[in-house]
Amino acid sequence: MNLEHLPSTSPSLSRLIDELNKLPGIGPKSAQRLAYHIIRLPAEEALALAEAITDVKQSVGFCQRCQNLADASICPICADSRRNQEQICVVEDPLDVLALERTHCYRGLYHVLHGVISPLNGVGPEQLKLKELLTRLEGGQVKELIIATNATLEGEATAMYIRRHLAGRAVKVSHLAWGLPVGGSLEYADELTLSRAFQGRQEI
């Protein structure tokens, strides 16, 4: 397609730019570049991208156990009997699971909160998957809960909330220790940093 002859006021192009601009980390200029890149794509590649977006919205949901993203009712990690069923690592987001899995140093299960407690943003415990976490601990099979929230004020507040609600339970509660910088996120930490954080975790 010859972009020189494409009207700058094309409604379909403007809509695409507007939708791309809504993505995290994508500003107006980046949205424009992505939109023009999509226009230049062969038709089959553009359709494949559109189908992938449609499929992921229709197929991906939450794992009934750990609340991670999954194509089925139970995610592959929870379905793997070789994982340590006595450990649960609590993380904020699905991307944190991917980051920890890249380290190959943890072989237990996960629980995804889908956020952190943040009163300033109107996010309380009831908006997170905390009730599902406490339900998982009722059977007595879990021996250790590893809190891996980010080293932020909100992450620490969430960790304190979990610790407070586990008081008196026969569950060892630990927190990722040295290696993670204050204010940092698991998503951007390298494998060595995450490995050392796991190895240096301390009982709370």
Spell out the helices and strands N to C.
HHHEEHEHEHEHEHE
By secondary-structure content and strand pairing, the structural class works out as alpha/beta
Query: How far apart are the first and last residues' alpha carbons, in Å?
Result: 61 Å
Into which percent range does the helicity of residues fall?
A: 40-55%
**What is the number of domains?**
2
Characterize the overall form: elongated
Radius of gyration: 21 Å
Which topology of the largest domain does CATH recognise?
Dna Topoisomerase Vi A Subunit, Chain: A, domain 2
- Mean pLDDT across the residues is 88
Architecture (CATH level 2) name of the largest domain: 3-Layer(aba) Sandwich
Classify the beta-strand content into a percent band.
Answer: 5-15%
Number of helices: 8
The CATH class of the largest domain is identified as Alpha Beta
Strand order of the largest sheet: 4-3-5-6-7
Low-pLDDT runs of 5+ residues are none
Count of β-strands: 7
Oligomer: single chain
Largest sheet: 5 strands, mixed
